[in-house]
Amino acid sequence: MKVYQKSLRIHRNGMSRLDVVIVVLVLTLLVSLASPWVLRLREQARQTACANNMKQLVAGMRAYHDTHASLPPAAVWDVNATYSLALHESDRVERISRENWLQLILPQIGESDLAAQFDSTVPIGHVNNEQARTTWVGEFKCPSDTFHREDSPHHFYPVVGEDQYIEFARGNYAINGGTHNYELTPPSTQGPQGDFCHLVMSEEPRRYEMWGNGIAGINKSFSFDDITNGQSTTIALEEIRSGVHELDPRGVWALGQVGGSITWGHGVNGDTFSPNNQDFRADDILRAKELHQAVGSDQIEALGMPTCSYVDRNQQSTARSMHQGGVNVAFVDGSVKFISDNIDPGLWHVLHSRETPPEELSDWELLADMSNFAEASTTRRSSLMDIPHTYTNSFGMKFVRIPAGTYEMGLANNDRNLGSPICPTHEVEISRDFLISIYEVTHEQFAMAENQEIESASDIATLPITNVTWYEAQTFCERISKANPNFLYRLPTEAEWEYVCRGGSTEPYDWNLTRQPNDQSGDAAGITPWLPLTPVGNYPSNTYGVYDMRGNAWEWTHDWFDRDYYQRSRKTNPFGPELGFIKVVRGSDWRFIGEPCLLDYPMQPPWKKNPFVGFRVVCEPTDSSLEDPK
């Protein structure tokens, strides 16, 4: 029998070397394309986990409020820990610090056993609290923070140069202490301090309280009723990063200190005015000098954790995270939102303030991603070409004509990378003459506009009116405009104000930090000792015949504040940004003298009052028939 067999030739259905190479290339391409997507998914998951941690913490704070009728204080400091009551100046934080907000809400977030381990009768640095303060808690960690590890605690050395240290576990969440000015010097003619902080110290009974515009202070608590701002628009908690070295005290969950578990003083009145702020002087923390020596200043900045090397005090710290482009913040109502690093500093400031009127933030989310607001349009009247040299209105307010001109506004950067809102110098043209009040508005004039009376012989009648909001100053302008229908009264723009203050001079003003014995100028901004408020016209006028531009009360201007505005303002008659949340306050030809002139201590929200901030006005004729009284 003949058997037919299949061919022995094998038909291979496998892949050739070329096929393998092509497949490898395709897979490599797919992996390279998918990797960023996978990484984004992972980061989104970490960001979501972080947000969930914050929701749990705010729920605990709200439960604490239900029990105690107030939110927890940011921290409890022991008034008997040191001889001096100036606890904010002490470097013995392990002695003065007791409970902080996070310890106080432990029972409300399911950590009763951990809460029981703390001994509240002794300081946080006491050995009795060692086990509790070194406990690592997963819910206190943002998964994106690679510096927050169980094996990277904070070591606080009570005495620099010695080996003994006190250990603390890390944390990533801080209570909103506020965006007020961190300076504790009270407002004065030397400096108004803007949105200033409050400090109470007394010996009998021994008492210490420190608070700003946030939802919690040191030895100070607030209730929901104290939050003028809505609960959905007031920040309660925000992220902070764990320190980049054992000496770095930032991000320590059980330590009731600024930077450790409290954000503080990170608004427009300083140099850490936004989340993840990268100004080289941004955070002010204890042992910063030693941290710079251990890590290196360049490396600290490269890690995105700048701190001022010459400040040795926990007094200023902003929100920080390792998420791309921003931070998570939790509001009092428990909602969590991701805030861009590029948020307008003014908006960042007022979102942290419990005092912000709710109507100011009705559309804040539409503006949250806008870092620069559009330029405001000018409203100057066309009839300004024909105005008198001097003028006195029915309220007894005297005005003088300021000639049109051009000048260099602001401060030269000089390649110092200052990042200052008063840099760079830029040419400004005031295109037409205008009238400005030679004095600041007085108590008597302000009362007349409100149909009230003050005895002309009264001690306060001719003092500049202060403790008025920007809105009240604006209302004054509207009232006197109605009383004098041929005139429009308004606040001067910042450019007009500085132009008048300089008095036509192109030379830098010769400032002295300390008042000279024979100084009769009345100049006060930045000068020690400060002068009291005095009746208007008590000191000599400048070359334009205008009084108290560098002294007496600080003054509201028309403009919204924007830190970048000098870099993009128009040349002719700039009117400031169209929108904003903070108003410009002026009191010298720049802001201040020395280092403070690079910051913005005077700026403040338009609804806030200050005992040393008043105003003067510009008068614009609306009828060309106005004649010169001379």
UniProtKB/TrEMBL annotation:
Domain DUF1559: 42-345
Database matches in PANTHER family: FORMYLGLYCINE-GENERATING ENZYME (PTHR23150:SF19), SULFATASE MODIFYING FACTOR 1, 2 (PTHR23150)
Keyword terms: Kinase, Transferase
TM spans (from-to): none
UniProt enzyme class: transferase
Sequence ranges assigned to domain Sulfatase-modifying factor enzyme-like in this UniProt record: 398-618
EC number(s) on file: 2.7.11.1
Gene that specifies this protein: pkn1_2
Descriptive protein name: Serine/threonine-protein kinase pkn1
Cited InterPro entries: CTDL_fold, DUF1559, Pilin-like, Pre_pil_HX9DG_C, Sulfatase_Mod_Factor_Kinase, SUMF_dom, SUMF_sf
Lineage: Bacteria, Pseudomonadati, Planctomycetota, Planctomycetia, Planctomycetales
One Pfam family hit: SBP_bac_10
Organism: Thalassoglobus polymorphus
GO molecular function list: formylglycine-generating oxidase activity; protein serine/threonine kinase activity
Top-level taxon of origin: Bacteria
